[in-house]
Amino acid sequence: MTLRVALAQCNPTVGDLSGNLDLLRRNLVQTRSHDVHLVVFPEMVLSGYPPEDLLLKKHFLLECRRLLDAFAADCKDMTALVGFPEFDGDACYNSLAVCRRGRIDAVYRKCLLPNYGVFDERRYFHSGSTPLAIIEKDLSLVLTICEDIWDIETLAGSLASLPKKNVIINIAASPFHAGKLRQRQDVISAAARRFGCAVVYCNLIGCQDELVFDGRSLVFDASGTLALQGRPFREDLVVFDMSPGDSGLTIHPILVSSMKLPGDPVAEVYEALILGIRDYVRKNGFQKVLIGLSGGIDSALTAALAVDALGPRNVVSLTMPTRYNSPETIGDAKLTAENLGIDIHTVPIGDLLSHFSRALYQVPGWDEKGLAYENLQARIRGTILMSLSNQLGCLVLTTGNKSETAVGYSTLYGDTAGGFAVIKDVPKTLVYELSHYINRLHGREVIPRSVIDRIPSAELRENQKDSDSLPEYDLLDRILKGYVEQIKSGQQLIDEGFPPEVVNKVIRLIDRSEYKRRQCPPGIKITPRAFGKDRRMPITNKYSF
Amino acid sequence: MTLRVALAQCNPTVGDLSGNLDLLRRNLVQTRSHDVHLVVFPEMVLSGYPPEDLLLKKHFLLECRRLLDAFAADCKDMTALVGFPEFDGDACYNSLAVCRRGRIDAVYRKCLLPNYGVFDERRYFHSGSTPLAIIEKDLSLVLTICEDIWDIETLAGSLASLPKKNVIINIAASPFHAGKLRQRQDVISAAARRFGCAVVYCNLIGCQDELVFDGRSLVFDASGTLALQGRPFREDLVVFDMSPGDSGLTIHPILVSSMKLPGDPVAEVYEALILGIRDYVRKNGFQKVLIGLSGGIDSALTAALAVDALGPRNVVSLTMPTRYNSPETIGDAKLTAENLGIDIHTVPIGDLLSHFSRALYQVPGWDEKGLAYENLQARIRGTILMSLSNQLGCLVLTTGNKSETAVGYSTLYGDTAGGFAVIKDVPKTLVYELSHYINRLHGREVIPRSVIDRIPSAELRENQKDSDSLPEYDLLDRILKGYVEQIKSGQQLIDEGFPPEVVNKVIRLIDRSEYKRRQCPPGIKITPRAFGKDRRMPITNKYSF
Q: Where is the domain boundary, A466, A495, A529?
């Protein structure tokens, strides 16, 4: 007997219940044409993930149930496994509905609830405690949800009571960071080997605020060998047969995309950023984005990513020079726009800066020598971008990278002003790698060579360079990785050989910039520990080490 | 035998470990002079609460332990109960150290970890599972931490194994909202009656980012009657004797402040806001604050609160009129400053507005008829305030109330620009009540009558009134309370008799303003459900009802 399975790796929108129901139905129709017996949808596909405090609304949970019942009524000729928030009148569970025979035939409740990093599942859900296996075509399919499979000993304890296990099914909403796929493959392969059965893993795709879900659903055979993989960062329908063979189940592909990412490790970050921009813009009802092009690499990269995500007609750029901008950077802003095929408007702000400063002289203490005057330039630019965003209905993309964001090398309401911070979690060194990658990908100089080669500068005063205020980015990024991502202490970093004065300075800058980060737009998480809901530091805090 | 107890209701700063150790020591010295046997400190007093992701730093946890050991060495002649984050080399606990005989003699670990509302304790802590009672002067003192006492059935189960219970001690870091005291008293009184023993409750005071802790430590006798209360919103040392009497323990005050809040229910909100401003400013290293005075009631109230918190010399105000501001409001801004005894600077922004608009005409699509032009005025003001903040080192207090914040009746980077949003959780109707309260408290018109009486307007165009865009505040605030605080659905509100078209409009405005709120400064929680870490909605969200 052969079981034909489809993994419907799809992209729901949080809260769009009727839209998500349509998505389920469209997938059901499509699988039907492939004679599928069992279709597997990702975790929480009905509500989108994470729905956060929507889960505190009983009427939201009841509406989820109503739509799930409607969907289950469609599942007469096949079985669908659907992730949804379940409400039993009292508590809420992260659940998987077995829809068959025209109804919700059984429900599995997630047992292990992650409550670390970007996860807050214990805020919302109660834990399930009962394992569930269903029989399809004489195969016993054990149902699990995401985290359940990440603690193999707990899972082993939980599954001990099940008499027969042919396949473990895991539905997931696993957020991306660079390198995560490897971890997932290791975990799933280990589970396959430990339990001696195939593992079928269906992951969400799409962007929800700070999180990108990368799809790449997986099928491992009972020996722990990868048999199939869903498309990266795209919706996909993976169809395959499972039939008993000499050594366990044989997995036979029916409909599997051959799409692979280029070998370059930067490729997956590029894909995450593209998907992140596209989904945030689309799901929030925007068409076009607006970007301030300075002539520097961060804004050039952001614009290039936006063009690849949305097309050049949906990207508008603006350059807002003062006398502190060199002719080269002004030229480079225009060259970047030209290379990208996007509109560029020029609004010189020198006069505005003079008028503003004159107005500010009415308050004793103002002068043009300090940081405030430098930052005023950034704030005038932020105001112009936001005014045009307001007027034209474009979303402003901000262009700050993770290195700047970390040390607060930015002006609040200035260069941080906007709706979505595309490269907020991309360290400066990776900004360069991404720029080279994009140029290679397009086979031409999309991001001008001169932009890539120029010494980084905010150009807010004469002859300013980033290195006047900050260590070289290569050093800075390694300290950031240790301090922010790996939660090392300053002492540990010093013991590892980083210069003490640089470590101390960088840590001080990071810790006292928390108030700025708190008011920045959301951006796409691509590292193991991003600022935002991933790293939650108090603003008022006297501990810095 | 008499046990003399002190409740050291004190105000630590998150992360300021050596400062907090000094605070413990100062209190120890003070209690010694009163011949105290047992001094009780609040939950997590050593680290401050909540320390958030500082708890993920092992070196932070180890440093806490080192300082606690140092403090315990001082506790030779008396016993101190100290809340601290405990690290056992593997997991972290929210713990209470029994410091006596010059060492940490025992440790109790919190059993019930709140993970709702503003709490994220399961992100950081493992649960304890063992009850602990200590003997002092022949009395058996049962140790509990905050949430432990809020679920009386669970507590009863946990305490069943303890042979003798004379007193339950509860150390707490219980965040304030209006009306919370009553809830606490009910819970503690019920515990006293249920277990037939006195309950001693020591609460933190102080402000940490969005949270205010209000102190008001409590002592209930075994009959469930309130015997003593610590000062509201201030540090305090409450000293009392407990001695066996005919009907259980007798509680005899030794050092108890008679300070009480006025009967007015608005009084506690006023106190919370004053403490919130004072602590946020002080703990973040500021002296002075800067406020834009529009002549309207929100900024007048914010300035009056700031003056009461910091003194008039630490409050600087700025008025930034355009031709859309009536002579009356300009006059009222000045009158407010005069009444408050604070400096006021005038920076007219009409010319800047013209220059800006002229610059913006360089981009096709700009015009002066729309919302963007109105908002530009707010953004120019935001830029001026932030530039002066930058230059003068003052913290900008923003002046938006909860009603505006809810429906997004504000300009991002305009009137939302600043460091601390004092009345962000205060609905407009309560803004009026607070203004009257302040005038009564001072026995004079601190906030001018004309400011209180004027019809609310943003004055961003001719003859604008808030009621052009929003329902009357009385109606709006009742809808907000139902939708935001009580998590009712639109349908429920309509069923309760609210006009459907108003309900639908208000809910739509609330839901689509999430992106703005996400970039607003932190502010003081005073309601049961504040925007911020209390109410966590996705930005990308198509569910609105």
A: A466
Whether A244 and A274 share a structural domain: no
Taking contacts as CB-CB distances below 8 angstroms, the residues of chain A near B14 are: 538, 540-543
Dihedral (Cα; B506, B508, B510, B511), 10-degree rounding: 160
Q: Can you give the CATH number for the domain in which A65 is found?
A: 3.60.110.10
Question: What pTM does this model have?
Answer: 0.97
Q: A521 pLDDT exceeds 80?
A: yes
Instruction: Tell me which chain A residue has its CA closest to the CA of residue B206.
Output: A540
Query: Quick one: A228 and A340 in the same domain?
Result: no
**Chain A with chain B: Cβ pairs closer than 8 A:** 254
Interface touch A391/B367, C-beta < 8 Å: yes
Pick from A57, A380, A542: which is nearest to B13 by CB? Answer: A542
* Domain total of chain A: 2
Judge if A244 and A272 occupy the same domain: no
Residue among A207, A392, A413 minimizing CB distance to B386: A413
Residue A328 annotated among the catalytic residues of the structure: no
A384 touching chain B per CB within 8 A: yes
The token pair at B439 is: 């005038």
Domain boundary among B415, B449, B466: B466
Residues in chain A, total: 545
CA dist., res. A51 & res. A402, Å (int): 26
* B270 and B243 fall within a common domain: no
Residue B355 belongs to what H/E stretch? Answer: helix B350-360
Residues present in chain B in total: 545
Omega within 30 of 0 (cis) for the link into A50: yes
Instruction: List the one residue out of B104, B109, B105 whose CA is nearest residue B135.
Output: B105
- Whether residue A121 contacts residue A85, with contact meaning beta carbons closer than 8 Å, is answered with no
SS (H, E, C) B380-411: HHHHHHHHHHHHHCCEEEECCCHHHHHHCCCC
B125-142 tens-digit pLDDT: 999 999 999 999 999 999
Clarify whether residues B190 and B78 are in a common domain.
yes
> For the domain that residue B432 is a member of, what is the CATH number?
3.40.50.620
Answer for the pair B518, B538: CB distance below 8 angstroms, yes or no.
Answer: no
| Inter-residue contact B49 to B204 (CB < 8 Å) | yes
**Same domain as B298, residue B204:** no
Distances (CA, A) of B158 to B132, B143, B161: 10, 12, 7
A188 with A275, same domain? no
Nearest CB to A371 within list B51, B279, B390: B390
In a domain, A536, yes or no: no
Cβ contact, residue pair B57, A489, below 8 Å: yes
Does residue B241 sit in the same domain as residue B338? Answer: no
Nearest CA-CA partner of B334 in B450, B232, B225, B433: B450
Instruction: Determine the average pLDDT of the residues in B463-474.
Output: 92
Inspect the interface and report whether the beta carbons of A487 and B544 lie closer than 8 Å: no
Interface test with B, best of A290, A412, A511, A543 (most B CBs within 10 A): A543
Per-residue pLDDT averaged across B10-20, rounded?
98
Show the DSSP H helices in A50-164 as ranges: 58-74, 121-124, 152-159
Domain with A95, as residue range(s), is: 3-255
Whether A499 maps to a domain, the answer reads no
Residue to substitute from B368, B540, B544, B545, interface A, most A β-carbons within 10 A: B540
ipTM for this prediction: 0.96
Whether residue A145 contacts residue A171, with contact meaning beta carbons closer than 8 Å, is answered with yes
What integer pLDDT is reported at residue B202 of this predicted model? 98
Amino acid (one-letter) located at B99: C
Residues A315, A291: contact at Cβ < 8 Å? yes
Q: How confident is the model at residue A213 (pLDDT cuts 50, 70, 90)?
A: very high
Averaged over A296-324, what is the pLDDT?
A: 97
Consecutive H or E run containing B160: none
- Inter-chain touch B372–A390, beta carbons under 8 Å: yes
Residues in chain A within 8 Å Cβ distance of B392: 365
Distance from CA of B163 to the nearest CA of A (A): 33
- To the query of whether residue A520 is one of the catalytic residues in this protein, the response is no
Is A43 among the domain residues?
A: yes
